[in-house]
Structure formats: C-alpha cells, structure tokens
User: Fold these one by one.
Assistant:
Number 1:
Amino acid sequence: MHNLLSRTLERLDRVRRDRILPRIHTRSAGVEVEAWTVADDGEPVSARHALGLARDPGRTAPGYRPFPLGAAWGQAWATTWFRIRGTAGQQAGPLDLVLDLGWFDHSVGGHCEGLVFTPDGTIVKGLHPRQPHVRLRGDGAVPGLLDADGTFVLYVEAAANPLLLGLPPFVVTDHGEKGAEEPFEQFRLRRAELAAFSPEIHALACDLDVAGGLAAELSADEPRHWRLLRAIEEALDVYDEADAEDGARRARAILAPVLAAPAHASAHRITAVGHAHMDTAWLWPLRETVRKLARTVSNALALLDADPALVYTMSAAQHFSWLEEHYPELFDRVRHHVERGRFVPVGGMWVEADGVIPTGESMVRQLTYGKRYFISRFGREPREMWLPDSFGYSGALPQLARRAGSRWFLTQKISWNDTTVFPHHTFWWEGIDGTRIFTHFPPAETYAAEVTARELRHAVTTFKDKAIASHSLLPYGYGDGGGGPTREMAERLHRFADLEGAPRVTSRSPAEFFQEAEAELLDAGSLEPVYRGELYLELHRGTLTSQTAMKQGNRRCESLLRAAEYLSAAASTLRDAPYPHADLDEIWRTVLLHQFHDILPGTSIAWVHREARDTYRMVEERLHDLIKQATAALGGERADPLAAAEPSAAVVEVTDGEAGATVLDDGLLRVVVDGGGHVVSLLDQRGGREVVPPGRRLNELQLFRDEPVRWDAWDVDRHVLRHPQVLDDVTSRKVIRDGSDAGVEVVRRTGASTITLTMWLRAGTGRFETECAVDWQERERLLKVAIPARVSARTARFETQYGYVERPLLANTASEEAMFEAAMHRYVQVADADFGLAIVNDTMYGADARADGDSTVVRLSLLRSARFPDPHADQGTHAFRWAVLPGADVPTAVEAAYAFNAPDLAGLSPIAPLVRLELLTGHAVVDWVKQADDCSGDLVVRVYETQGGRASARMHCHEELGAGAVLWETDLLERELTGDEDLPLAVGPTHRSVSEARLDLGPFQVATLRIAAPPKEDIQ
Ligand SMILES: [Zn+2]
C-alpha cells in the first residue's frame, strides 16, 4: 500500500498549534485592570496590606492606577499588584479569566509568576505560562468568585523575578542581586480577558497529544503505530475550525477506539505522583521561595479539588513550616488533604540537603528535625528519603536513613553522570557499613515529568531492572522554581491508565509504590541487584569548592554546635544550668536550611550567598554566646575531650640549609623549605621516612583556567585539570617563630591576587601545618595546593559522614577516571604497606588524589570563581588551614581532625569528661554529646567505629552522673528500639548500668546511646 500517512504527525503539529489550541479559549469580554507597584524597598508586602485590609508597618498605602494592556510592569525583583474587575455575562459554559503577564513559554517557575487573591484575602491559585487562567464559572471554579450580578474583583500579586537561566543558558548577569545597574527588560501585560473555555476542544487536544505522542514513539514495524496514524489522520480530516466544537466531537469519536485499546499484559507499570521539585533558594532568594510555595501549593490544591484521582507529594519540613507560618489558610487545606492521603509529605528531612558535604550529625538532624515536624503536624512519619536533585550521596546515608526509621531511598540525579551509566534503577543500596536500603531511581530520569508518551517510553526502555522488577515511579509537575502539575498532565495521565503500546500509569502515593516495588525486589532471588558504597555523581564536582564562605560557615557552625551542645549538656548535668533547647533548635534549623542543595554547594545567585554569609556570622556569634554561658556555668572549666593540645617540651630548631633553604627540626619531623618557599623535604624521623618524592615540592600552589562547558558554579571539568600553572613567584619569604613553634612565611602573587602561606612545624605534635590567607581577585580560575607523598597506594581514604570512602588513585576504568575531583570532610589518608600519611583541613571539601609512579599526589581545592549564577563569586579575602601528618593511620587522622576543627576554648581549664570511651579493641569515638530532644534531661551520646573494622569499648561517665546511671540504645530520633529494625546494635535497647555496658561496633557502625540518671525503676 502507498504510505499515505507519511506526514500525519507533521500535520498534527500544525493543526494543533494553529487551529486547535487557539480555540480552547474564546474571548468573551475584556476586563478592567489597575496596578500598584510596591514602593519603599520593593520587598513584598502582605496580601492584607495590598488589599487594603490592614496596613504593614512602615509601608506606603497601596494606590491602584488604571493599567493599559501591553504596558510594562515590574523592575527586576519588584512586585506589582494588579486589581482586575469584570462582568461574566450570562452565557452558559465554563468561563476563565486568562492572563499573560509576559510569559516565556519555555520557563515555568524561572521568571515572572502570579498569585491570585479574592478581595477578602483568600488565595485562589498561582499563575505561570502553563497555568495562565482562573476558572470563574463551570467545573473547577472556586465558589463565590462571581457576585450575583456576574461581576468579580480579583487581585494578582505579580513577582517580576528575572529570567536568569534562559536561552542560551549560563549567560553572565548581575540580576542575581537587586538593584543591578545592568539594563532590565520589564515584563509586559500581554493579555487580560474573559474567555469561554471549551471542554470538548481541550479534550481533543489531550487525545491528540496522547495518540500523536504514542505514534511517534512506536516503531513503524508495529501495527499499533499505523492504527494510531490512521485514526489521527481521519480525526484531522473531520475537525474543521469553522465549527470547532462539532469538529472536536466528531474527531474524538474517531480517536475513541484507538484510545480504548488496553495495555499489553506484561506492560511496565508506572506510579505517577504529582510533584513540584522546589529549590529552597537558587535563582531567587529564600523569601521568594515562601511565595513560590503559596503559588505552587494553591495550584496543586486546586487540581486535587478538581480531580479526585490525583495524589500530590511535597518534601522538606522547612517548606511546610513556611506555609504554616505565612499562609495558615493554605496550610489548613494541605492538612485536610494529608489526612485523606492525597497530599503526601515525603522525605522526612528538614530540607533536601546536599548529600555529601554536611557532617554525619547534620544528616542525623536533617532527619530528626524533619521527621519530628511531620509527626507533630500530621501524625505521619515519611518512610522514604527523597533527594531527587542533590549532587551525590554519601555511603553513610543507608545507615542513617534506616536508623531514623526510614525504609526507602529515592533520587534520579545519578542519571546525570557524564561518564558511566549507572547499572540499576531498582536495587539495594548498601552503605559503607553494610546497611542496605531499598532504592529507586525513576527511569524517566527527571523529577519534573509532564506525563508525555516520550517520557513514558523513555522510562520503559531505560529501566535497567526489567528482569526482576515491573514498577517505576514518575514524579510529574513543573519543578525547580515550582509550578507543579497541570490539568493537561492529569488528563494525559488518565489516558495512559491502560493503553496499548504504553506502560500502565496509576496515580498513587509513593509509599504504595515503594511497598510493592520492595516486595518485588525481595523476590529477585539470585538476580538480586546490590550496589555498594557511595553514590558518586559524575558531575557537579565544583560544588565542593564554589562559594567557599558556605563551606566555611557550615563547617564552623557544625564544630561550634558540637562544642555548644556538649558544654551545655555538661553545664546542665553537672551544674543544673538550664539546657538551651529553644536556642539550639532555632540554630540547628538555620544551619540545616543552609545545607539545601543549592546554598551549601554554592550554586545560587549572589543575593542568596550574601544573605547566607550574614546568617552564618550571626549563628556563629550566637553559638559563641551559648558556649560562654555554658562555660560560665561550669566555672570557667571546659569538659575535655573536645579540644586537647598536648603540652610538649619539644622546640623547633631553625637552621640554614643549602641555597637559601630553611631547615625546621623538632626531633620528630625535619622540614626543608627551599629559597623559593616550597617544601622539598619532610622527613619523619621516627621511622626515617621521607615524605616528599624526589624532585617534587609539597605545598605547591597550582592555578587552572576554569572554564566549564556547562553549569559554571557546579562543574569542574576534566579538561580544566590538564594544565596547571605553578605559582612560583615569591613576593616575600621569611622565617617566623611562635613560642616553641617555627616556620616559614611565603607571599606569592598572581594577577591582582595575593596568597600568603604560613607553614608551621608545630613542636612535638608530628604535624606540619599551613595557614593560607588569600586575597582573591581572580575569575574563572581554580586554585589548588599539591601535597605529593612518597606512598605507593591504590586507593585514598576520604573522610565522609561517620567514616571514610575509599576512592581509586588509578584511572584504569572509566568510573575510576571520572572521580577526578571528589568530596572529603576533615581528612584524606593514604597508606602503603608500612607507612601512612594524613592531610587534615579546617574547611575544605574538594580534592583530587592520583597515583604518580610509586608516589601519590593529593591536591586540595581552595577556590574557584565561576561567573554563573554569581558573577562575583568568592572575590575577596579567605583563610584556610591544613596540616600534613606523616605516619598517621585513620584513628590518628580522626583525632587530629577533631582537634584541628575544634573551636578555640583556650583559657578554660579542663575537667573530667562527661562521657569517655575505654577502647578494648579497635577504634571508635564519641562524636557527639547532647541532651535528649524530649527535654527529659537524659544525655544522648553518638559514637561510631572509625576505621571500617570492629571495635569494642566500655563507656565511663563523669562521677557526678552517679554510679547508678543507666544506658540504652535508641534510634536516631532517640526512641526506644522495637527490635524489628534488623540493624546491628552496639548495646541494644535493654536499660543497663553504664558501668556494665559493653559496646560492640561493626565497620562504621553508628550508635545512639541514651543515658539517664538517676536510675529508673525498670533497670534490668
Ligand atoms: Zn533542586
């Protein structure tokens, strides 16, 4: 037969665009528009102020003026309120108010948006390019919008958020801050009118989307492809826009049989769940996210009200909490739908945090603050970790999730890998400690699907685990900047419920999906897929270094929190001082908020990072105050072992070496700094090992031209690392002394930047320490410091949450090569058969480590200055510290890491520690001590095994805790264990005397121990 259908899909596109979509809304009347632009500082005002219901203090009263169609509104980041009046007329059928605020069709949630209010301040819904209407009459209309005479008044809060990530992407712009001098093209009000809505033509458009989309995805070898094309061709033949309503009805009748053909028996099954991935801050400031939530949630609620089959999910307790605080009426509606299982809180974390940079205790608190919020507000505890967008996931997360009572883990980000393809979508993820968690990567490989045939087909073809699993999850709805699902997505979802050639699509909660998918996996037998270790993302490696103030603020706050909680617990336990629960909660929530996956990684606009720097400063001050309070209560004593500098009688001797070199020697280490300020020898005199390989130089500063292909603040590309420029210039060089310590200070210049390295041999510590002060004026340059070591190893140990991850030093395979820049916490350690070496740092997170002949080179990343989205990132002064510890094993590195990061508590005299581990075998540490979150006064002690081996220990308490103190093990939320956790326990849930308790810890095992004094009645 001739191919008469060769242009059917092209014809469909044209007819749909020009003759169907424009007929869905038919103009029925104009409206009267007035506008008022918020003056003063231009920051948002309350709806009550804008609506004239109440006055915001210090704000100019709203003054609405007539506003013509086509006029420009809104400077960057300003807010304009529109007042819109009209009369609906008497004709029957659905009627919409349709608005075009100046949309870019390609960007939902990434530029201007609106939120519609009634005159009494009730929120109606959000507006964006794909949701530009308000239903005034007919199905889905909010009751009461029209008066008895058909008139209405609505207000629109329009936010002039600039389009920062446009086409082409990653264009440098200053509009990430308010008040930029760069010209700004204002938005224009292009459309404001009443329009009759045709359900029939809308339904035809949805039918054709599904039929055409499916035909395009199916191979021409399949009969179904041709049946769909024929039906589409015939439907287009009968659709005549001259009588569009009747044409739509006839066309739909032709399409009905092909859209009624059921799916194959073995069709893949998809659980579709409405969602709006909402970045807590990114290309907009934190305050805008609060408004984005109102827009997105009100849209989602309108859709849930209109379509009883749909389910919507939202993560991040912080977001719910903002809604509760700023939009209580919306929050009540959310709660109503939560109770009915249709609005589902997921994730159980405070925010969708970065997955690798926060310390272990921070991840614990993400989970405990998140879960407690959901339990307190909704009586529900999410059982999945929901991190679709974070930039890699530490190997500690399976254990932490499971110990917080979660069962499942979700992300899709690993599909962004630039080098290798991850082998699974549904699998057991096994952490560094051996804990497994059911894990699913939605195979549509997006967290913002639109429920198209292409996405569904992609999900089926991509899904790696077809042999053992038949389900996958599809989070659909516009994301990043919010927006969420639309009625068109919902319509397609219904059409794909049971359709030949497509997977079966069901609207259900994530928990329903996880339960069924986990059951399937448990049935996988010998094909059971397991992935062990961290989920390293082969992309966005620059996020470990960008906006260094975020990393430093976070690390310092974590270290201060550790000291503040420990000292407050000591002051409370030993001196009956009140424990500052409320202050600590508020501080923790602030620190957790800033661990969001675009703030801590340094990938937000300048505005976000400026505010974050101020916030970190304020939080650090508050923590210093809490530490002062606690130490005052303790009588000026500190409770070791938080920071312990061992007094030593050693003194560094300084002598002149050859060719202007300086030799530093304290009897343990002997360091030679050459005339150019480089370390050419570091001799460990205890075993006679030379650390610096022949011809190499330690502390060499290397500069790289850092011009990413894409995603500037996110990516360090491999091409960047190929051509280091060594900074050899010496502006000054001098020998320095400080008590028994001595060192060499070298000042180097590059461009307009100055780098001062102050290299200390700390007498008697076995530590060669460097303080680095940088006045950084470079852009698009990466600065690293190289530490070569004469250690022949195949892997290096990078500290991560509660342990380390071993990464390859070789680049034999593609995945090994792809780890060319990776995350570390406080140390990197390398070792050969008889010698180890550790490098500890105070605030850095990015490093690379590679074998170099019989040696190893570790390079710490200090600074980079991408130009998008913040063109002035990292300009200014910075300070870093690192130390090289020759001969250090992992326990030594861990102890040094604590000491190196502990806040300076000098001047306080030590007292006996509150709790102490007596190690019997192996190595474990007390990582954290605090009071229980339930304000009972119990102590909570977090310990973990540090080396990846086994450790046993006894716990000793301060004598004032009393000999009768009892101890038992809990989950991370400090709850009694039920015995069903299926997790290794260090002591178990039985209450026993502390002195009788023996802790047994497996590799990297974390234990949460609760200690109560005086003894309770139920001691066994
Ligand atoms: Zn995100």
Number 2:
Amino acid sequence: MIVSPRARAMRLRVDQRTGEVLLTVPRRASRRKALAWAAGHRDWIEAQLAQVAPPSRLLPGGTLPLYGEPHLIDWDPARPRAIQVDGGRIIAGGPADNLEARILRWLRRHAVDLLAAETREFAGLAGVSVARIGVGDPLSRWGSCSSQGSIRYSWRLILAPDWVRRATVAHEVAHRVHMNHGPDFHALVADLFGADPKPARSWLRLRGPLLHRIGRS
Ligand SMILES: [Zn+2]
C-alpha cells in the first residue's frame, strides 16, 4: 500500500513489469477502508494479473531478444564457459545450474561496453563530456543524467532494437547540454539521433514491461 500526500482518491494499479498490485491511498484515508475497497475490485485485479507476462527464464534451448532480435540459447556443457554471440545464437558452455546468472552477467557487461561506446559517439557529436557511464536495473527509467555529468542506463536497453537504444543514448547525452525537456532539448536529440526519437519512446512504453520480465526467476 502506498500512502501518498498527493493522492486525492484511492487508486489501484497492477505493475506489468513486476506483477505487483499497487494500492495508492490519500494520507488521511482509513487503511481498513482502502483494503476493503481494493478487495471489492478483486475481479479487476485478477484480470490485470492475468495480463502480466510470465517471467522469461534464460534456459538452454530458450530464446532472448538481443538488439531486439530473438537469439537462441545454445548451451553445451562441453564448451568453455565464456559466452559468445554468433548468427542469432548465444553460445554458452559450463555448468547448467548457474547458466542464467552467467548470461545475465554477460548481458550486463556487454551493455556497459555498447552503451559507453555510443555515449562517447554522441557526446563527440554534441561536443560535451560525460564524467561516468554506468548501468543498473531500475524499474522506472531507461536512462538518467546527473548534473555532475554522469549517465546511467538500464542494461536491459541491449534487449531492445538498436534504434530504440540509440535514441535513448541520444536523449541522455542531450541532457549534457540542456537539463530540461524543452524544445531546444528535443531538437538536439533529433539532431544527434538523426531521426524523430518519439517512436523509440513509444516502443519502450509499450514493450519495455516485457524486457523487465527477462531473466527474473
Ligand atoms: Zn530526459
């Protein structure tokens, strides 16, 4: 239950990224009444929960999207542990029991390398510096830029198509020039990205929740 000083009415939401049921209540509302109100919406909650995609595990023979393209997890215990990508396959060896954790670690490292290279590319175009580039796994944002000049991304961007990832990088780098979302900022993003970045934002809004289901056990 989220008690919000800003909420004027009770609100129910099912988070499609986590499958959590979120009940927002105004500060002065009675907790007991709020729970009873939520219980009265049980059918609605169940219908929403049924729409949450099941967690997508990273198991031998399964697939995962890399750069937005399905990649088969091709595992053979006889192969070395080091993970490689080739022709739409994630080639992996080593023990099966920690395969998912190893693929996740590899994805994260690969995301840092790719996002850092693209950040430097756009920073060069924009004529700005970037202090630090890192990745994390936040639920609510795909990227953020601090006033000190550090940029952080969700590693899950490498699961999205290249154009979606690059539009996000252009967005964060443009914040090194404009710390707002004004018209000059949007013009610079379009300039750096070389196209209208709106379809990428829509893609993340629509498909992003599914990326958050990947590798969650
Ligand atoms: Zn922004």
Number 3:
Amino acid sequence: MWLPDPTGRFPERPFYQRDELDRECEKIMHGFLKSRNGKVSYPIETNDLVVLLEQESSDLDVWADLSSDGPDVEGKTTFSLKGKPTVEVIAELQEPHRENRLRTTLAHELGHVKLHNYLYRLHAGVPSPCCTHDTIIGASQVDWMEWQAGYCSGAFLMPLSVVRRTVREAKKGTGFSGQPDVATAEGQALIQQVRIAYQVSADAARVRLLQLGFVVE
Ligand SMILES: [Zn+2]
C-alpha cells in the first residue's frame, strides 16, 4: 500500500502494517539463525548481527567516521541503484559499554537495507538517510523511513513471538496480569526482564513493549 510522502523525499511512500514488519523481521532473523547456528536462541549474538548485515549489504564498515554527516549521526545506509546498499556505523559504538547501542544501530540499518533499497531504484538521486541517536529506536511516524527502520530494529532483536513468551512467563512468575503502566513496579520489572533476555537497553525494551501493547504509559 502507498501513501503520499509528507517528508517530500519521494512522491509516495510505502505503508507497512506493524504485523507485516513483525512477521517479515522474525522470518529473516529465524531463517538466518537456523542456517548459521542450527537453532534459534536469544539474545542474538552481536557477531551474528554483524554477519547478517554483512550478508545483506555490499559492504559493512563498523569503524566509520560519520562526523561530517552531522553531530548525532551513528549509522548510515547508502542505497545502490544496481546492487546491495553499503552500511556504515560509527567506530565509537565499538566501545564495550556501548554494545547495546551497537546492536540497535546494526538492527536499524538492517531495517533500511531490507525495506528501502528498492525505493532508490524507483527514484534515483534521493539522498540516503543518516540515522541519528534519537531516531535509531523510535522516530516520529512522520519520518516514516526512520520510524520503519526503528520498528524493525526492535522486531529483529526482540521478535514478537518470543517476546510474547517472555511476557507470559514473567506474568506467571510475578502473578500480575493485563497491561501494566511503565511507571509501576510491574511495568519496570517487565522492562528489566526483556532488557536482560534480549540484551538491549531499558529504553529499547520499553519502546518495544509499548509498541506491542504489553505495557502502557
Ligand atoms: Zn535510519
């Protein structure tokens, strides 16, 4: 389905239902993990994410300097008219304490690679997106390219069917039910469980649980 593009980048932009993105991301991740490791388990190894992105791009540079693209740019996917896109992620995310940030950025760029390369074949010459600190996990829905890549970042790292299981087990363990508010102890406990089970930041876990309706705010 196509809608007018309010950002003016393209004449029209593709619209995906959230469950379409969830299904597609889970299929890609599970297919990859199964063929690479013979099994699907979470959290995804950071190196597995790197290998998947290497396979899906023509070149992946995780030691990039993107300072000339703007002060907060942490990742960039450069689309290609002929082949696969190239992906750059800033070298600073290799610092051990920023591994969660590296993981969400790799998964975000994978979203651009899988969803958006064909658009550039339709409309050559449109600039590729630069992904800033604030848009990697959650962008406004108006900035649909960033929003879609951000949604995919969560859907690759925390696929719907496995998160559903984590939430079910957490509820069984603690005895709460329904959709806890993120400000309550139950909501915070759920965010912590997801954070640990999928090796993501508390912010990424909170955004994903909100998007899936497992918590409210
Ligand atoms: Zn982006």
Number 4:
Amino acid sequence: MCCILFVSASTMSNGQQTYFQKGFNLKAVVRPVLAQSYHSQVVERLKGLGYAARAGEVKVKLAREFGFCYGVDRAVEYAYEAREQFPDRRIYLSGEIIHNPEVNGRIEALGIRILADHKLPVERYASVEKADVVILPAFGVSVSELQHLREKGCVLVDTTCGSVLNVWKNVIRYARDGFTSVIHGKHYHEETKATASQALTHPGGHFLCVKDRPEAELVCDFIRGKVQAGAIVERFPEATSPGFDPERDLQKIGLANQTTMLMTESLEIQELLRAAMRERWGEAGLADRFRAFDTICSATQDRQDAVLKMLGEGGLDVMVVIGGYNSSNTQALTRICAERLPTFHISGADRIEGESIRHRPVGGPGETTSSRWLPEGPVTVGLTAGASTPNNVVGEVVERILALRGRRADELVAGE
Ligand code: SF4
C-alpha cells in the first residue's frame, strides 16, 4: 500500500523537517491578523441578538451554523503560519486553499502563489524547487501529486482536513478488499480527484464518480442488467479509473462521498445502489458485495441541518446564500433553500446592486442578474454561508441589504 495517509514527518538529508501537518505553533502571532481580516462586528452583533434582528422594516435571520468550518479555519491559519515561518522562501499553494475568492485573494496578497490545476504534477509544479514551500489545501491533493512533491524534496505544509482523510481511509480499505469505490461527488472537484486517487493505491483498485441521482440510477440500471456496459463507459469517460470495465468492476462496490455534497442526496444514492445490488445478487450476496459509509463531514451536515431548521421555522420571504460559486457545500445549501423559497447564491456583497442582484442559480452555468429581488414593504431575509465563507463577507452582505432600505447594522435590534 502506498503509505500516503500516515506520513507524520519527513526530513531532508541535512536533518531538517520537510513535512508539516500540524502548523508551526504560531497561533498567537497569526490570530490577530486573521481576526482583523475575517472577523465581522455585524455578525457578532447578530449572534448576540439571537441570530435574528430587525432594523426598520427589514428583518435578517442567520442560520445557527454557517461560514468557516473547522477544516477551513485550520487550513487558512496554517497558510498564515507558513508565511511567518518561512518569510524568505517562495511559497506555493496547490490550487485554491478553499473555494472563496476573497480568502484566496488575501492569501495571494501574502506573496503565496496559487498554482493552477494541470493533469500532470510535473506540469503543475514545474516552477517549484527544493528550497520552496508548498501548501496542500484542505481538500487534499492526489497521491501522484504528493509523491511528486516528496520526490522534489520541498517543504510541504499539509492542511488536508481530517474529515477528508477519513474518507480516504474508507476508500483505501475498499481497494484493499477488492471493492470498487463509487464516490458521490464531482469528478473534477479537487477533493474528489484526491479521494479517487486513493482508490488506486492497491493493485486492481478502481473508482467511479457519480455526481447526482440520475447518474446513480444509470449505474443501478447496469447492475440490474437493464443497460449494457457501453452506456456506463460512454456516460463516465472522465469519472472512472483507467481501464474501468463495468462488468468486472461493478461486482463489488463500496460507497463514499465528497464531504460537502447534499446529505439527503448521498443517502438516497446509497439506498438506490444498495437496492440494485440486492436485486442483482440477493440478500445473501449483499454483505460480500456492498459496503457504505456516510462520509459527509459534520460541518457540512451541521450547516445543512441549521438551514433546514431555519426554513422549517417559516416566516422567511427570501434567502441569500453566500459563498464561492465553485463551492460544493454552498451549492448544496442553495439547493436546499431553493426548493422552499426564492433563493440567491451570491459570492459577496458586491453582487447586490440596488434593486438588482447578480447570483448563480441552482445548477446554472454561471451568474445571472435578477431585478426587484427584495420584496416591497416589511421583509424577512434569511442568510447562510458555505464553509469557506468568512464572517466579514457575511457581515458586508447584511450591511448591503440593510442599506437598500436606508438602514445600518448599528440600528439592528432583537426581533422575532
Ligand atoms: S467542509 Fe468538512 S471536510 Fe471540508 S474542510 Fe470543512 S470540515 Fe473539512
């Protein structure tokens, strides 16, 4: 087995440590800078008022769990610590540290260069030299990328979230036991790419990524013998392991998911595949051929639960979901809300321009503009934010919404 997960420390020939997974003990130095960059007095005020407050005829309600998760908190903190620890070195980041344009911009302003994605590690890390530092993001990187960087001998600051490592453990176990990993996730997402690569750490290991229920249903149809293998090969050209043979590789499957998918959809997909495998192999065969672990992370689940609770309490006229457009967990929150009421996924306060709002509709390819988005008269606006959205961005959005009605955040008072 490729011993990728359990590397705790490695050193150069001169005895210096080159692999860091636990930061640099510089919390006291970077915390004030982080607070200054990402803290929001408006958000603190709202929390202090019980997550619901009004100013004039505008009422704002904040989900009880929103914004930065533990994994993102840690990754951002380690990036700032790395800058302190290596003030004179070139520092690179393997892609965006998280899916938030504001945070990535601030990281770049520290002189940390974000490396664009490339199919081959040798291309992505072409400019990285042994003396450089490379930060690995919270989503993790693929096995081949990590191997490539270790061979270069550069310093690695690994911020891969513990919840992602947990998914990898399951996927490695599947591969070891001869199960193909069926991953509910977007095959092009950094985390899913990294997770899928872990399925190949044992000879004969394979993966198939399904992004939604229709794709899972097609796989079920194949398992039941309703469609031919060619339909799978055609539908998943980039979402399967090299040489994937549906006949051979879908006989024993283990489910995992990208940590930030919609929880209800992941569970539905799990049940669909379980039913198909039961039908194909019988109840007796199921235990030897089907495994499943819920690998949605607790932060994602808490944010989805909190927004469902807020929607369940009723009284909202419109919902604003804040987060990067490529943030999966923000997209999942948007899907939940959009089923219940008018919902606008925005990346930041600058998307609200008077009566117009620029937002990304559910499943849409990009941004669209809606006008007169805020109902006339007394209005209650629900708010939540994805796990990669800092509080300062949430606070700016609240201020912008209040300003539409000539109000300020310091006028907010408690109000159900
Ligand atoms: S969303 Fe979950 S898995 Fe991703 S960084 Fe946050 S806590 Fe970790």
